């Protein structure tokens, strides 16, 4: 058990909670990471999880291809994460990879609305994840799901500003796992968004599948596209013609909205 008392701390470099204990050197794509842990509880009482300058300031200083995430959970099982306040991450705020049976609640994320590639919570190759009772405002996706995200439940999350909740982009890499069993439910509030929830796939894509996706009880304010399915999200060529089409299948898709047409764009 690692107990971090309430207070303000300066962590000069990347820190990994992993045995055996050792110091890592060189560039790392995270600030704090938990790996290969079964039965983890992170109850962060610090005022803010902040790592140096805001992302926009870093971009102005130098051009960075991959910027570190504030918090990563890789190969983690049976975890409870709560009361995290992530501010001005350089890249993703919270990243879940190859993890299962995780509950995330009372998460607060703050970043400028013009900070690109700063997704709030991102999952990949992870299953049985619950994300609830949180507030996320950032310059990119509120919550994003990549290949292999399965059986994920999201409820009571306030999103905005940012790019909404996204599945994808999918179809860029061969032999990647499908996305299925996602439920986005129970009064999510969106405001000042171009898109509410969206599915995005490459135009000239590899075979893939999005299945059993449910969007229910979404409350949106000042959102141009409540539900946006974009199968021409990215084209690797100068233009996408009839020979370049998405091979990502979308099946068993359910949505309910009111006030505006629920599906504003389908490509």
From TrEMBL:
One of its GO terms (molecular function) is polygalacturonase activity. It is found in: Secreted, Cell wall. Its main location: secreted. Pfam families: Glyco_hydro_28. GO terms for biological process: carbohydrate metabolic process; cell wall organization. The active site is at 163. InterPro entries: Glyco_hydro_28, Pectin_lyas_fold, Pectin_lyase_fold/virulence. Keywords: Cell wall, Cell wall biogenesis/degradation, Glycosidase, Hydrolase, Secreted. Belongs to the glycosyl hydrolase 28 family. This is Pectate lyase superfamily protein domain-containing protein. It comes from Aquilegia coerulea.
């Amino acid at each position: 058990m690692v107990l971090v008392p309430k207070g303000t701390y300066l962590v000069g470099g990347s820190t990994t909670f992993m045995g055996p204990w050792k110091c890592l050197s060189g560039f790392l794509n995270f600030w704090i990471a938990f790996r290969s842990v079964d039965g983890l509880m992170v109850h962060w009482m610090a005022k803010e999880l902040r790592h140096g300058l805001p992302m926009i300031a870093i971009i102005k200083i130098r051009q960075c291809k991959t910027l570190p995430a504030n918090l990563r959970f890789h190969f983690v099982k049976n975890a409870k994460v709560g009361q995290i306040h992530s501010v001005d991450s350089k890249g993703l705020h919270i990243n879940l990879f190859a993890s299962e049976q995780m509950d995330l609640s009372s998460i607060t994320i703050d970043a400028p609305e013009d900070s690109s590639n700063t997704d709030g919570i991102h999952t990949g190759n992870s299953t049985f994840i619950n994300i609830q009772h949180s507030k996320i405002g950032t310059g990119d996706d509120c919550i994003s799901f990549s290949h292999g995200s399965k059986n994920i439940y999201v409820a009571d999350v306030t999103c905005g500003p940012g790019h909404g909740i996204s599945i994808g982009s999918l179809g860029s890499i061969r032999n990647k796992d499908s996305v299925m069993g996602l439920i986005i439910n129970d009064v999510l509030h969106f405001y000042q968004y171009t898109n509410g929830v969206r599915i995005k796939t490459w135009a000239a894509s590899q075979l893939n599948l999005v299945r059993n996706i449910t969007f229910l009880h979404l409350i949106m304010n000042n959102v141009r596209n409540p539900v946006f399915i974009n199968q021409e999200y990215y084209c690797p060529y100068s233009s996408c013609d009839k020979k370049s089409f998405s091979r990502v299948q979308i099946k068993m898709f359910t949505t309910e909205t009111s006030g505006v047409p629920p599906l504003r764009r389908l490509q």
